[in-house]
Specification:
The radius of gyration is 31 Å and the shape is globular. α9 (720-736) crosses α10 (753-764). By secondary structure, it is an alpha+beta fold. The protein has an eight-stranded mixed beta sheet, sandwiched between helices. The relative contact order is 0.06. It contains 16 helices and 57 strands. A hairpin with a 5-residue loop joins β27 (412-418) and β28. The protein is 15% helix and 33% strand.
């Protein structure tokens, strides 16, 4: 009987899998993901989006206490009202329509626009308003919704597009509780006060409507009264209320429209006043000579409302319109004393033109004057205690910038700058690390990467103490394997009144007294280190600046041994062990808590289970709200298992082995090895089948009968190539001991740093039947002096300090650059290889791919190169991502499965056929 049952279930299983089909390239667009999870302040309603990779997404509302649901087709960008009675969102045009508009190359003003949706969460009735540009609720207060319409469609042929573009549109303020609404004309910008009782907006007026009002207006939303703060036509922006909503400041300029340089002022008013006055202009007392108010800076009130922080900038000179362009040279001059290479300067020119320097004014002072706090030599600053402190924390790398060419970072000096006088006090010099102020500003906390310790500077006494030097654990990355100082594990935050700071080691959380008077306390009692668990505080609210002394923390928890994920809880002050809430063979997203109720929203998934949205009151039990990717059940999927082995030098390593879920140990399977640094922590991470930017499409290949192996790699400085051999090849050899691995049909795939290792491996071994190298570096001697065009930075820092891990200059250790350059060993290659090298790659110069291709071609080796035109390091355009998936499958299927070869591999695609023939057709001919 037992044998019959076993046979029955075996036959049943085979029938089930026989009904499933392998993934194909048509499935990508409809595969879904979760986006924009939110929960109402009272915790009663949750919202989230389910979006396909391409097409129309949907917005869902779920009531947490009942089964009531609402689905909004094409809904996006939801926002709940403060009282949790309403929600507003945008309804996007149909994807098919926007696609058609792109094909027809319609102008923006001719394209379809978003629709505003408003849902009453009591009745679930939905109101729709077409052609809405933006909307906003106040942070607090009544359910008042403000929204700005798009311009109406102008069918007249005489429409002045330039003039019309500068004019505002209808602005509606609607009380959702009473239903009353008011429309204001030609509005361009608006901002609620925090309590929602005030609403400021600016109107442009109209050349067609001479009676239209222009300027800045302040609406009292409770009384319905409107003040005209500024009557003059101009450009007004960056509205900011103080914390008590009693004062308002904003930027404004009234320069002639044709002026290239606009003259900005800062306007200021109180809610008790009827108009706004210019508080700061270029003639204001304290303004440095030849400086003006910056129109690109932010405005910030201090928490107590007494100070206004703003930016000033050198006065700009207009272009000399008398110069004849073709009579003047165009060139870049590179100077060895320049702070930055010309490539970096040109990349950042727009940012630098908007550069401004933090300044402050006391708005209550009878003789208020500008106090500049930063300048060219001390350009960066952060407010302390929400601007209430008597100083700002400023920093600079002035004088240290040139070295960033080969270090990738700079040493910084830190200063306390007095907000009353602008006087400066240097407190930290040449820091290799970062510094920050405590919430109340009593201490400056910083991490020094050179010695791996945290330090505290006490502002009142000027004393600096080490917080961690005498502890027997490391607070810098214990597994750092690049030739540079290790980074810290970070910090969770501070407790109230700056009493302690919560710092991470690899596993646990420590409470350290910034004045050194209290003994350091491991608040997780060492439970993390002793159980191989990594605890990190999960911040469930963005409003809290610090932890309360007896607060119970929600701890995101990762099991480094099993790769399980979950949550524990721990009170900061008690001496109990952390309490387990949930651990699962899954991956949890970040958690958001309702502001006024104990409800949590998050999503959870695993490799075999598509992520879904959950709601929970205690993080122990949860209710699932969504059901994504139900179609997955129709396809052959996969399983994951953690593989552990010992390398030839005795190092312990691990990786992930992906198998088809219809895996048969009596069969032999081809295998593809994909690698990039360390990937094993993603054992339970869901991977949607998708046209990837460059990495291996793991679920696709697994579904189509491949094993996929992703080994972790650790590196020895100076020998990254041999390190790849040590870990990748030994992991593959370990798996080849299994009869179900076809050792003669193993391929390798990698992108960028992984692409380099692919190139290296095929020069060092012939154990791989096929290789795919995306954006590889093959000649470190030429790449060392190259440019990362995306940032403009020189590549030297990569080799001396970071990922490329040489740890020396080209002139100090030329032998290491040659040892790790596959170009010099190309005659050893026997493995067929495809290279992707794109001509707009901003990270790896694409001539590296050309060097590899032309070298192998010269040697008569089977090699192909894909250059996706005007594409980045990782493919951005979806059509190119789809293209490479097909080519990658065809390449590996030919060499690892014996399938027919595609035309692009056999005959290539002549330039005359470009854009007409993609060469996907299969042929009996061989490459």
């Amino acid at each position: 009987m037992q044998k019959k049952l076993t046979l029955f279930f075996a036959l049943l299983t085979s029938v089930v899998f026989a009904q499933k089909k392998p993934l194909d390239h048509s499935v990508y667009d409809g595969w879904q993901s979760i986006a924009s999870k939110q929960i109402s302040n009272n915790g009663v309603w949750a919202s989230y989006m389910i979006v396909p990779q391409e097409g129309d997404g949907d917005l869902y509302f779920n009531e947490t206490l009942s089964a009531r649901k609402l689905k909004i087709n094409r809904g996006a960008g939801n926002s709940f009202s403060n009282d949790s009675k309403f929600a507003a969102f945008l309804i996007k045009p149909f994807f098919k329509d926007t696609r058609l508009e792109k094909i027809k190359k319609k102008k923006p003003e001719e394209q379809q626009k978003d629709t505003l949706g408003i849902v009453n969460l009591t009745t679930l009735s939905v109101t729709k308003i077409p052609r809405v540009k933006s909307f906003a609720f106040p942070d607090k207060g009544a359910s008042i919704l403000a929204y700005l319409l798009e311009k109406p469609i102008d069918t007249s042929k005489k429409a002045n597009a330039a003039a019309s573009a500068k004019e505002g549109t209808d602005f509606i303020v609607k009380n959702l509780t009473t239903g009353t609404e008011t429309t204001y004309k030609y509005v361009t910008d608006y901002k609620f006060s925090k309590d929602g009782k005030l609403l400021v907006f600016t109107a442009s007026g109209s050349k067609k409507d001479k009676d239209a009002k222009t300027g800045v207006f302040l609406l009292n939303t409770e009384k319905g009264t409107l003040k005209t703060l500024v009557k003059t036509k101009g450009n007004y922006k960056t509205f900011v209320f103080d914390d008590e909503d009693e004062h308002l400041a904003f930027l404004g300029e009234t320069s002639p429209e044709k002026d290239e340089i606009k003259d900005y002022n800062i306007y200021f008013t109180s809610i008790n006043l009827d108009t706004a006055q210019v508080l700061i202009d270029k003639e204001a007392e304290g303004m440095p000579a030849n400086f003006v108010v910056s129109g690109d800076a932010r405005l910030n009130f201090s928490k107590d409302g007494s100070k206004l922080f703003f930016g000033i900038a050198p006065e700009k000179k207009p272009k000399d319109t008398t110069l004849v362009e073709f009579e003047h040279a165009k060139l870049d001059i590179w100077g060895y004393k320049d702070d930055y290479l010309q490539t970096v300067q040109l990349k950042n020119v727009d940012r630098d033109l908007k550069k401004n320097f933090l300044s402050v004014i006391n708005v209550y002072s009878a003789d208020a004057k500008i106090i500049p706090l930063t300048d060219e030599k001390l350009p960066d600053a952060a407010l302390v205690n929400e601007g209430n402190q008597s100083y700002v924390l400023a920093s600079t790398d002035y004088g240290n910038r040139i070295a960033s060419q080969w270090t990738g970072s700079t040493l910084r000096d830190y200063y306390l700058v007095d907000v009353k006088t602008g006087s400066r006090k240097k407190i930290i010099e040449n820091l290799q690390g970062n510094a920050m102020a405590s919430p109340n500003g009593n201490y400056i906390l910083y991490f020094n990467r050179v010695d791996g310790n945290w330090y505290s500077y006490q502002v009142a006494t000027g004393k600096t103490i080490s917080l961690t030097a005498n502890l027997n654990v490391k607070f810098a990355d214990e597994e750092n394997d690049v030739p540079d100082y290790a980074n810290s594990y970070g910090l969770a935050g501070w407790t109230e009144e700056d009493k302690s700071v919560l710092i991470y080691d690899k596993y646990d959380i420590w409470a350290l007294s910034p004045d050194g008077k209290d003994k350091p306390k491991n608040i997780t009692i060492g439970f993390g280190r002793s159980n191989n668990l990594t605890f990190r505080v999960q911040r469930t609210s963005t409003e809290a600046r610090f932890f309360k002394r007896n607060e119970t923390l929600l701890l995101s928890t990762f099991n480094n041994a099993t790769k399980e994920d979950g949550f524990y809880t721990k009170n900061i002050n008690d001496n109990k062990l952390p309490e387990l809430l949930v651990m699962d063979k899954a991956k949890f997203s970040s958690v958001t808590k309702a502001r006024d109720a104990v409800y949590y929203i998050y999503d959870k998934g695993s490799y075999i289970q598509s992520p879904d949205v959950y709601i929970s009151k205690d993080m122990k039990t949860a209710v699932k709200l969504s059901n994504t990717n139900l179609q997955q059940a129709n396809y052959i999927w996969g399983t994951t298992e953690l593989v552990k082995w010992t390398t030839p030098k005795g190092y312990k390593s691990e990786g992930i082995l992906y198998k088809p879920d219809n895996f048969d140990p009596n069969k032999k399977y081809p295998m593809i090895v994909y690698f990039y640094e360390k990937l094993s922590d993603g054992l339970y991470t869901y991977q949607a089948p998708s046209p990837t930017p460059s990495r291996l499409n793991i679920p696709f290949f697994v579904s189509n009968g491949y094993l996929v192996f992703t080994p972790d790699i650790s590196y020895e400085t100076g020998h990254p190539g041999k390190s790849a051999e040590e870990f990748i090849n030994s992991g593959v050899e370990y798996l080849k001991k299994n009869a179900w691995v076809d050792g003669s049909k193993i391929g390798i795939q990698g992108q960028s740093w992984g692409g380099y290792q692919v190139a290296h491996l095929i020069t060092a071994t012939n154990m791989y039947a096929a290789a795919w190298a995306g954006a590889p570096v093959v000649n470190m001697t030429s790449a060392y002096g190259g440019i990362r065009w995306e940032s403009g930075m020189n590549r030297q820092f990569q080799y001396e300090k970071t990922q490329s891990r040489i740890g020396a200059t080209l002139w100090e250790k030329p032998e290491l650059y040659i040892e790790n350059s596959p170009l010099f060993k190309l005659p050893n290659v026997t493995t067929p290889v495809v290279i992707m090298a794109n001509d707009a790659d901003g990270a790896v110069p694409w001539y590296q791919g050309i060097e590899m291709f032309t070298g192998l071609r010269r040697l008569g080796k089977p090699v192909w190169m894909l250059n996706y035109n005007n594409e980045a390091h990782n493919l951005v355009q979806r059509q190119n991502r789809k293209d490479i998936q097909i080519r990658e499958q065809q390449f590996f299927d030919y060499y690892l499965k014996g399938a027919k070869a595609p035309e692009w591999m056999v005959k290539g695609i002549p330039a005359t056929e470009k854009g007409k023939n993609w060469g996907f057709g299969l042929t009996d001919e061989k490459p």
